[in-house]
Amino acid sequence: DTQINLDDALRGQEDLKEQLAIVERRNNLMVAEIEEMRAALEQTERSRKVAEQDLVDAIERVQLLHSQNTSLINTKKKLESDVVQLQGEIEDTTNEARNAEEKAKKAITDVSH
């Protein structure tokens, strides 16, 4: 009877050792998986920070380009206004030159007659 109990105890001990080995292997696999997940999380976090900085840089670039565009639009409007003014001045000067030429011709005609 004692031998049967001893054999049962030894079998139970062997079963427990096998179960412990299985649990330890499973635990080691889970620890390795956790480490992989941690590494992936750290990489993802680094990528997120890079993406955030890229976004900040892009926003700053857009703001700079918008400012430059606004400045160029204002310069274009000023230049267009200057062109219109200069065209008016050219027209006035051309008319004055024609009038002066006509007066000169008339004066020459009056003097010759």
Written overview of the protein:
With 113 residues, the chain is an all-alpha fold. The chain is 98% helix and 0% strand. The chain is built from one helix and no strands. The model has no long low-confidence stretch (mean pLDDT 97).
Helix and strand sequence: H
Count of β-strands: 0
Q: Which structural class fits the helix and strand makeup?
A: mainly alpha
For the terminal residues, how far apart are their CA atoms?
163 Å
User: The biggest beta sheet, please?
Assistant: none
Mean pLDDT over all positions: 97
Number of H- or I-type helical stretches:
1
Q: What percent strand?
A: under 5%
User: Which term fits the overall shape?
Assistant: rod-shaped
Helix content: over 70%
Rg, please? Answer: 48 Å
The poorly predicted ranges are none
Region (Disordered): 90-113
Biased composition (Basic and acidic residues): 98-113
Organism: Xenopus laevis (African clawed frog)
Protein name: Myosin heavy chain
